[in-house]
């Protein structure tokens, strides 16, 4: 296998980028444009908006909350097998959803199965991209992660047309069949480093080879040929000598096995102690991260932003229909407008945060203020054009997800980036899971989206205030960012696998 240093930043790495981009497009296309499917599910199952909203919230939140498990799968089995398996999960979940008899079944098939499959795709594509890129890693990850936004833009229009032509069930079946192309994308993901599972298998195979040296020879080797009618004294003596030799070897092997079992027991005890020490060290590191005031405020703001800003992705189409602002299916749905704006926001905000005199935390707080203001204006809008403009604005400032890894690195440093980013994703996933059902319950209670969107906007604005106030120089307990040494980037893929 080629050395990883010989293939970084080019060559086959760009094929990996294209395959990973397409994998995220195929996996996240339908979940990111689930707002198109939401009104159809309301009409099909006649359930409350709060209950039906669990489908869209779980498909986006489960993958984030389960990101540590997904990353462990990639580390042990490699990106290619995990992507193949995720293709089966995403495709199978979408096809199962076509036969859903009720919303509860849909929560399992679309929300959990498809959501976990997307989480596996996300972890696999980021890990394999980090392995192939060092100096151009930021550019490569930026291209790969825009696959989700491009997928949402394309799938929103495609699902609208498929529903008109083949109905909801036919649309899900076709989208599920298209998702099988994830397996083709996996074929391009040639690993640079052997995954942990294969290394364990190789070690076990070497141990088995050594044990075969002490095995008895087959009994056929000790028997006399069937064609001979008599046994000579020389042959009998040879057989006896071989039997004596085998008995001697058996006793030696038994003694060796006893010693090895005792040593194996000691080795297991040492491994358990090391695991306990590593676990306690990990928990202590997590505690230190949560003690940081800037980090804690960032986690709270991520939770509040996800709680308030994600529901429009699911409900914006139903808002237009319920207010009578859309008489027929739009060529470019509101979800598509938000998705393409989010793609532009990720790129532009990522460039802005690289400017030296711009503070990343204050820039994130500004995007939250602007997004919260857009949420407040949605109930006041009485035209479809106004909803299109607000969808673009909200989608653009929702691209602030591209700032999370940058801000996290500035707060805790690169050494603790993986742990801190995992904590952030947990808070973000938890907010995404709770947001849509809460908004749906507000509608079921008041029969209007006005109070629901005021609540969402209030959550986002509250998160912005908390983030801004707790990071002012007069409130910070620790030294400012200027006192922290510059981050020295490394090519260690384990520390940057969750960047983006």
Automatic annotation (TrEMBL):
Ranges where the Major facilitator superfamily (MFS) profile domain occurs: 16-475
Cellular localisation: Membrane
PROSITE patterns linked: MFS
Alphabetized UniProt keyword annotations: Membrane, Transmembrane, Transmembrane helix
> Would I find Transmembrane among this entry's keywords?
yes
Q: Name one GO molecular function term.
A: monocarboxylic acid transmembrane transporter activity
Highest taxon in the source lineage: Eukaryota
Which GO CC annotations does the UniProt entry carry? membrane
Record-annotated membrane-spanning stretches: 12-31, 51-70, 82-100, 106-126, 138-157, 163-184, 295-316, 331-349, 361-378, 384-403, 423-445, 451-470
Provide the membrane topology annotation.
Multi-pass membrane protein
Tell me the protein's name.
Monocarboxylate transporter 9
Record the organism: Notothenia coriiceps (black rockcod)
Q: What lineage is this protein's organism placed in?
A: Eukaryota, Metazoa, Chordata, Craniata, Vertebrata
